[in-house]
Amino acid sequence: MKVDGKHFRTIWLEADGATVGAIDQRRLPHEFIIAKLRSCEDAAEAIRSMLVRGAPLIGATAAYGVALAMRADSSDAGLDRAYQMLIVTRPTAINLKWALDEMRTMLRPLAASARSDAAYARADAIAQDDIVINQGIARHGLALIEAVAARKKPGEPVNVLTHCNAGWLATVDWGTATAPIYLAHERGIPIHVWVDETRPRNQGASLTAWELGHHGVKHTVIPDNTGGHLMQHGMVDLAIVGTDRVAANGDVCNKIGTYLKALAARDNGVPFYVALPSPTIDFAVNDGIADIPIEQRSADEVATMTGRTADGRIETVRVVPDGSPVANYGFDVTPARLVSGLITERGVLKADRVSLAAAFPERLSRAAE
Ligand code: MRU
Questions:
Q1: Best mutation site among 23, 53, 245 for ligand 1, i.e. most ligand atoms within 8 A of its Cβ?
Q2: Same domain assignment for residues 108 and 13
Q3: Does residue 29 sit in helix, strand or coil?
Q4: What's the pTM?
Q5: Do 302 and 342 share a structural domain?
Q6: 297 and 257 in one domain?
């Protein structure tokens, strides 16, 4: 997608063929800074500190992390060390494990001398595949937007609500939830996005609003609690969110607060769709609510807020009384029964075991190995 007219991906291999470049998402929306990852440790720290974030991008970064590790030490021990270092960086997005398993399975049988080049090639392919997958999501999701647009008066926008950032910044390019939105915008369908601010880290306010704005898509940032009111008043045509892990039964794990939006959507007859690339499906988890690990993050993320002052300084201020305990669950699980459909690269599926297994049989058989 474009930043000030120039096309960017979130992560790429630099011209030296070794260093990995990535947009530092901790600095957005106030500063656009490129970070250089030169080692597996750098990649692990980038994921842990949320310099990069969003399930598909976490996976791509982990793949490049393995490539960086192979450059330094391509022995079996080096491969195992890289896997262990990266797998513990964040617990919820299954794309991390998926990418690490892909890399390890491909690299393990190779001679150590061949591993570095092969690892960079596979990491590049994982990143490129993510873009192709998201373009598939765009095409399938577009049909849902077009169906709403067909019922509107000429010029009247389709109103989509989204939560967190499942935009191009959360992937390598295009995004998942935003992919159909960008395609609809490209096709000239009037579209407007309600952007949940997404406390505590404000991925909606800081990232989704930034990327939609830079791409020229109309949007409005709303406090997280606003969605129910908008839905009651017919101001949301459909909700599209992303996900960090979809269980085999169709339960959907996504940024904390997603479940409440799904409840409000159900109560108001608003279709609630989840967009996902197939690496986000975890066939090893049968019950999302019981078995998906939910990341708990630092109290500081809730107790403080960071922003730009009128004179341009970036400052962090405390908004919770000293001494008040804070809970910071990063994700929640929306039960499959509240999901109108899963928008995947192979079509819009019912959120259930049979549909997921029929659409992605190869993923199911790999999980059974
Ligand atoms: O904690 P984050 O910012 O990594 O969480 C991101 C989300 O929850 C996204 O909605 C999800 O990863 C889907 S991204 C295409």
A1: 53
A2: yes
A3: coil
A4: 0.97
A5: yes
A6: yes
251 CA from centroid of ligand 1 (Å): 16
Total number of domains constituting the chain:
2
Average pLDDT, the chain: 97
pLDDT at 369 over 90: no
Q: Which residues are catalytic?
A: 244
Question: Domain check: are 252 and 363 in the same one?
Answer: yes
Domain range for 58 = 2-128
Atom number, ligand 1, closest to the C-alpha of residue 330: 1
Query: Using one digit for the tens of pLDDT, what is the confidence trace for 291-304?
Result: 999 999 999 999 99
Residues 160 and 288 in one domain: yes
Q: Is 53 in the pocket of ligand 1 (CB under 6 A)?
A: yes
- Phi/psi for 347 (5° steps) reads 125, 175
Q: Report the relative pairing of strands 304-308 and 252-255 from DSSP bridges.
A: unpaired
Convert the pLDDT of each residue in 144-175 to its tens digit.
999 999 999 999 999 999 999 999 999 999 99
Q: Say if residue 103 is in the same domain as residue 246.
A: no
d(CA 211, CA 55): 17
| Distance (Å) from CA 13 to ligand 1 centroid | 23
Report the alpha-carbon distance of residue 173 to residue 258 in Å, rounded.
22
